[in-house]
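Lecture notes, unit on protein representations.

Consider one protein chain, 160 amino acids long.
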Amino acid sequence: GTLVAIMLGMLYGIPKAEELKRTQLYHDLRVCPLHVPSPQTFSQRMQVLRILEKVLNQPSILDSHAKNRRMWQFHRNNSQEFALPIEKVGEAQPKLPKRKPVQKLLIHSCVSDLSNKRRKILLAQGSRYAMRPLKAPTCGSSSPMKFSNRTNELTKIVPD
């Protein structure tokens, strides 16, 4: 709401009191609220007024919009809401590239040697090849191992 009030003042040169009234009116008449409060507290209104006093003293903002031949127009309809003009449908829609046909999934040769059940699982997952899970290093024994960050070596955990 604060941003809308500031934009009204910057773009259209509307007086400060009028822009706050219009912002509040638009906020109150919205069909789908955006859960963004309008500037209704004293501090919010003072913030809008302070920002506009700084911004309105810069002629480049208003001059650049005044020179624009497609100047946005301020409209009011019967419900007293404001709206911006909408461009023609052809101009507003972006041009999208044509879709390419979907290529069939290539299956790695090792998949063909697997059982039917495993092949179906791999095809369902979209995988190109089978990978078996890695086993923990055991170094020939069944005792647990520990990795040392300082020496980058695996060492056996020996119970005390």
